């Protein structure tokens, strides 16, 4: 973790403010054998997952080279078993342009700016997933809107959704509609129209 960067904010969100803690009405943490972390950043959620579900298999995606280096160090320093994929998460294999070096806000661009990076279809990695975390700065939309998303097996979803790359103006409404159509119950954590982002937890039986 580099001080005076957004690494500190990520640490505070997970380990001080408890943004990823489930609402008390949902009861205790549900068991999990497989957890997938899309948009791993520097590894704070990966560490959180290893603490709460130490026996679970962890799969993490993080394409930004600087972030990925920190995630790999977190894995090594904490002896965490993790399948780490240093590529963009998407709904199809290919190549995208990506703005790197923006810490937690590194993202796929839609104007051709940035560097070329590989993107891989995440759905094969989601086989038998119990917990899915998605925070990929707009790159979530091809995944959420793919017809395969409804049949993914995750019972718990942590999602940060964005105006960026959303195909409609009402990005919050589309996130809610998509998750409810997939059978999720939603608990809203944060929404800011000006910032163009929101955070929610979702679960299903």
UniProtKB/TrEMBL annotation:
According to the UniProt entry, its GO molecular function terms are: methyltransferase activity
Task: Indicate the transmembrane segments per the record.
Answer: none
Please provide the Gene Ontology terms (biological process) for this protein.
methylation
Q: Does the keyword Methyltransferase apply?
A: yes
- InterPro entries reported in the protein's UniProt record: FkbM_mtfrase, SAM-dependent_MTase, SAM-dependent_MTases_sf
**Which controlled-vocabulary keywords does the entry list?**
Methyltransferase, Transferase
Q: Specify the Methyltransferase FkbM domain's residue ranges.
A: 39-185
Q: Which PANTHER family match?
A: METHYLTRANSFERASE, FKBM FAMILY PROTEIN, SLL1173 PROTEIN
Instruction: Name it.
Output: FkbM family methyltransferase
Q: Which organism encodes this protein?
A: Xanthobacter dioxanivorans
């Amino acid at each position: 973790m580099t001080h005076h960067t957004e690494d500190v904010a990520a640490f505070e969100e997970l380990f001080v403010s408890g943004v990823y803690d489930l609402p008390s009405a949902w009861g205790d943490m549900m068991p999990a054998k497989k957890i997938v972390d899309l948009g791993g950043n520097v590894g704070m959620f990966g560490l959180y997952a290893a603490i709460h579900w130490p026996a679970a298999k962890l799969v993490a995606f993080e394409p930004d080279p600087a972030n990925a280096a920190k995630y790999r160090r977190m894995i090594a320093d904490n002896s965490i078993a993790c399948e780490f994929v240093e590529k963009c998460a998407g709904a199809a294999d290919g190549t995208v342009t990506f703005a790197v070096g923006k810490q937690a806000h590194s993202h796929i661009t839609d104007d051709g700016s940035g560097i070329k990076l590989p993107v891989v279809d995440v759905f094969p990695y989601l086989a038998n997933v119990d917990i899915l975390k998605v925070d990929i700065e707009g790159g979530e939309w091809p995944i959420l809107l793919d017809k395969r998303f409804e049949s993914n097996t995750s019972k718990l979803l942590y999602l940060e959704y964005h105006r960026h790359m959303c195909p409609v103006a009402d990005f919050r409404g589309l996130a809610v509609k998509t998750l409810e159509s997939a059978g999720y119950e939603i608990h809203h954590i944060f929404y800011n129209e000006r910032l163009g982002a929101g955070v929610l937890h979702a679960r299903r039986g």
